[in-house]
Amino acid sequence: MKYLESIRAGIDHLLESDDRTIVLGEDIVDPYGGAFKVTKGLSTKYPDRVLSMPISESAIVGASIGLAMEGFKPICEIMFGDFITLATDQIVNSGSKFNWMYNDKVMIPLVIRTAVGGYRGYGPTHSQSLESMFLNVPGLDVISPTIFGDPGRLLAIAHESTKPALFIEHKVSYPKKLASGRSKSAGILSVTQTLDNFPEYRVLPTTDQKIDLVVIAYGEVASMVGEIAEELFLDEEICVMLIVPTLLNQSPSESTVNLVRSCGKALIVEEGHEQFGWASHMSRMVTDQAFESLTKPISVLGAKQVPIGNASSLEEQILPSRALIKKQIATLIGY
Fold first, then answer.
1. 162 with 245, same domain?
2. 2 phi/psi in degrees, rounded to 5
3. pLDDT reading at 184 higher than 70
4. Could you tell me if 163 and 14 lie in one domain?
5. CATH code for the domain in which residue 88 is found
6. Count of alpha carbons within 13 Å of 52, Cβ hemisphere only?
7. Do 240 and 212 touch, CB atoms closer than 8 A?
8. What is the pLDDT of residue 259?
């Protein structure tokens, strides 16, 4: 199954199994089925509960919050993650706070889906990864599905919650096949799941040799690191352990910290801007717990602090590229 198909199947299952589920968004009804075709076919199957909305992100999220307050379980779609800024007031000052303001008499079980990320040449206002803007908002989960797990199941976990979630889907991941158990390409990467609620994945070459480096990443850059890990193992017999979290606004797991302690070196990668971003904060939290075991300072990679260009040559310079990640891994390992 592909990443996109898993999300569509997840929404389909939630609509079928719970008549409180309702889906709202721009251009999500057939025949268009959404900008990335995630909802294609669903409005035909559930015409009263998959509804097209006006071009107003604030209205989409605001209406969804109102529906949640009335007992529905909305899933709303913001076409591009860049446009989430237009709904920030509804998310930050309403949806994430109402249960606190009204002493848990009001719950907001809401999933806000949106497509994020670059590497497609969509330019500065359609290529951003703005999730770090929301990581310090109390009462809001920020969730990143990955090809190493089941995005549809992760959507169901978010849907079961009594608080709102920002569900960020990378547009480059949509057509990719899910990696179940082992990768399909070289067949050397083993994928295991830790944590039950919001899963964390360990991706490692099937070998008993010592881990040379721990890399922590999410979303599409995690897919990129997985491909690099295959190449390094096949070409250089270098063993890279990739850790892929799905709930971004939580502290690193104890198992992650223990792996960094054991290895002594770590690289943390995100596609969002490196300055004041998720990777920098994750580095600080891991360092606090593993400092005495580190043989080198934890390294961080993210986008440069400039708007994202349209041309692929500009994206290559601004976003974390395969070449840059591979170079940083080589520097840390010393080969």
1. no
2. -90, 160
3. no
4. yes
5. 3.40.50.970
6. 15
7. yes
8. 96
* Residue 293 burial (C-beta neighbours within 10 Å; 0-12, 13-18, 19+): middle
- 3-state DSSP assignment of residue 108: coil
pLDDT, average across residues 186-207: 84
Are the C-beta atoms of residues 175 and 4 closer than 8 Å to each other? yes
Would 183 be classed as within a structural domain? no
| Domain end among 135, 170, 205 | 170
Tokens 């799905």 -> residue: 246
d(CA 269, CA 303): 9
Q: Give pLDDT, residue 171.
A: 97
Across the range 117-142, mean pLDDT stands at 97
Query: Does position 100 have pLDDT exceeding 90, yes or no?
Result: yes
Query: Are 193 and 165 members of one domain?
Result: no
Report which residue type is found at 301.
Answer: L
Query: What range does the domain containing 214 cover?
Result: 189-333
The whole-number pLDDT of residue 73 equals 98
Contact 129, 270 (CB under 8 A): yes
- The overall average pLDDT reported for the chain is 95
Chain mean position to CA 328: 22
pLDDT tens figures, 280-320: 999 999 999 999 999 999 999 999 999 999 999 999 999 99
Question: How many residues make up the chain in this entry?
Answer: 335
In degrees to the nearest 10, what's the CA dihedral of 328, 142, 282, 235? Answer: -30
